[in-house]
Amino acid sequence: MNICKFNTSTPAPDTLYTLNFVYETEDRNMLQFRSDTAHRIHLVTDGIGKLHTIYGDFEVKAGDIFFTFAAAQYSIESASDLKYMYISFLGIRANMLFEQFKITQKNCVVSDCGELIEVWECFLKKSDTGNIDLISESGLLYAFSIIERKNSDADISAKYKEKILLIKKYLDENYCDIDFTIEKLANEFSYSKKYISEIFKKEFGLPVQQYVTLLRIQNACSLMEKRISCISDISKLCGFSDPLYFSKVFKKKMGVSPKEYIKESAKSSLE
């Protein structure tokens, strides 16, 4: 049975005004295009469906929020037992919220907001004719607070990813630096040695120093395959100040000494 609560107070168009709070508990298709006199924020509580608009089709699932807009044509298709709640709203402040959170007819779905389901269900149960205006507005603003947090988390995640890629780029370009240290890397990005070591290993599965050593050994192999045979020169070109230490590391990683690798490379080139 569907649950509908209506706000009968006088609208204030210069603020934010909610008209109703509805729970569509029955799975049903609304395949005919329609439009409403108010905006609606929908919260999918169960199932899977699709929102059809003139700007495209949007898949929605349990835990997703999707918006429809006043006077804009749309239809809702249920693919599997689709159920949802919605709040209808109007007012100048509504337009401000859309602008603030970049909600448009082309960007009208916010995924993974499942924590809102229990909150809205609780709000709806506690609502009556005396408080539906406050309850529905609280539900609306609570939804926007979740959207704000998700946007903030996405921004932080994007900045973190960008920083990690910059760290990797720095290593890819500077691994041959004989004076390279993790402390120098940390200072370059204004992080502590511990933090930069932890985030790099978490992202790429290798400690920073192992990654640098891997790049150095790969470069050494490339130089040897190009007929550069002076071990001292190769070690310096690859960031090792001590040829003996370079030879030790190379044999540990490759299973053969640098001289043996050079011989094998020369044989392979003649075959």
Summary?
The protein has 271 residues and is α+β, with helices and mostly antiparallel strands. It has helices spanning 92-100, 115-126, 132-174, 182-189, 193-204, 208-225, 231-237, 243-254, 258-270; strands at residues 3-6, 17-24, 30-34, 39-53, 56-61, 65-68, 74-90, 109-110.
Q: Oligomerization state of this entry?
A: single chain
Structural class: alpha+beta
Nearest-integer average pLDDT: 88
As a percent range, the share of helical residues equals 40-55%
Report the sheet-strand fraction: 15-25%
Query: Main β-sheet: number of strands, strand sense, barrel status?
Result: 8 strands, antiparallel
Shape assignment: elongated
Q: What's the CATH H-level homologous superfamily of the largest domain?
A: Regulatory protein AraC
User: What is the tally of beta strands?
Assistant: 8
Q: Output the number of helix runs.
A: 9
CATH class of the largest domain: Mainly Beta
Label the CATH architecture of the largest domain.
Sandwich
Radius of gyration: 30 Å
Q: Uncertain regions: pLDDT < 50 for 5+ in a row? A: none
Say what the CATH topology of the largest domain is. Answer: Jelly Rolls
- The topology string of helices and strands comes to EEEEEEEHEHHHHHHHH
